[in-house]
């Protein structure tokens, strides 16, 4: 029986592990299939405080991991196939066996939706990005494309005009899902033009290892053309990784976890941090901050339980 198990190995999970380890809770962290989370898909991270010259996303994860391990976090590879939150104890089934814990921290993140192109995957972090806030700065005075027709696409296109010489917003239909106010703002921006009924068929140029353009196809006419750009921002939404807790933990309409107080969920002893409960900020630093909060909340929850009394564990309430 563990005191704390953390699921997820992005900045939220690793920070929760660091704090839990330093609180002598001997945490076990289960990595998940996408080890390191979304930072593994980025190159330079210039907005994480403490690294004035920037740091590569994977290198930042390596540092966080080593720091969590230094204080005794045990990290196991593997994906969780089932979660039983009827406890405590909570039961977590992985390919390596079943783990039991008195407190559980969910840091399973969200995955940016992608177009599904091989070229998009190959050039991720080399001109293809899923985060305007993170990467916009790298495209000063350069033409870029934003893909999507929702609020995120409008917001990112508008934000990116601060840097880019021109933004072409590519959307697969002729009507936007975005709210009118966000659309109006984007339409009023002279640096944004629109390619509607249009999809990206390919991101160029994998052979050169950087983005040099996109192949656009009009879905009505079938006509294709190449547009020279230096960056491609995919803004077609995110999917929170909450399949495992569906029906057990309260989720909002978009399937994000809804914390009830601090990082505590509606299930006493289960806490959530990082992008799995945040569709607004979605930054490494905010994820890390909420990971710290989750560890502190879990520690206080455990302290509130009478020690070594399994009956009490079962009846104790949340922090
Ligand atoms: P979203 O509303 O789900 O919109 C996703 C957009 O991407 C849609 O236009 C969709 O096209 C398009 N898309 C999806 N899959 C695609 C694919 N494979 N290829 C091409 N296009 C694809 O996602 P979101 O914009 O990230 O917004 C998510 C939620 O956050 C929404 O509730 C939104 O209002 C909210 N949000 C609010 C703000 C704000 O208020 N400041 C900012 C950002 C987000 P179709 O329309 O054809 O389906």
How do you describe this structure in short?
This protein is α/β, with parallel strands linked by helices and 319 residues long. 25% of the residues lie in helices and 26% in strands.
Task: Kindly describe this structure.
The structure is a single chain. The protein is of the alpha/beta class and 319 residues long. It is 25% helix and 26% strand. The chain has helices spanning 11-22, 57-70, 118-122, 132-135, 151-160, 180-187, 284-304, 310-315, and strands at residues 2-7, 28-30, 44-45, 55-56, 74-76, 80-84, 90-94, 97-106, 110-112, 128-129, 143-147, 166-170, 192-195, 198-204, 213-218, 224-228, 231-234, 238-240, 270-272. The strands form 5 sheets. Strands 1, 2, 5, 6, 7, 8 and 19 form a 7-stranded mixed sheet that branches. Strands 10-17-11-12-13 form a 5-stranded parallel sheet, covered by helices on one side. Strand 14 and strand 15 form a beta hairpin. Helix 1 runs parallel beside helix 2 and helix 5 runs parallel beside helix 6. The longest helix is centred in the last third of the chain and has 21 residues, at 284-304. Bound molecules: NADP nicotinamide-adenine-dinucleotide phosphate (NAP).
Estimate what percentage of residues fall within beta strands: 25-35%
Distance between the termini: 20 Å
Structural class: alpha/beta
| Overall outline | elongated
Which bin fits the share of residues in helices?
A: 25-40%
The helix tally amounts to 8
Radius of gyration: 21 Å
Largest sheet: 7 strands, mixed
**pLDDT averaged over residues:** 94
Number of strands: 19
Poorly predicted runs: 310-319
Q: Identify the bound ligands.
A: NADP nicotinamide-adenine-dinucleotide phosphate
Strand-and-helix sequence, N→C? EHEEEHEEEEEHEHEHEHEEEEEEEHH
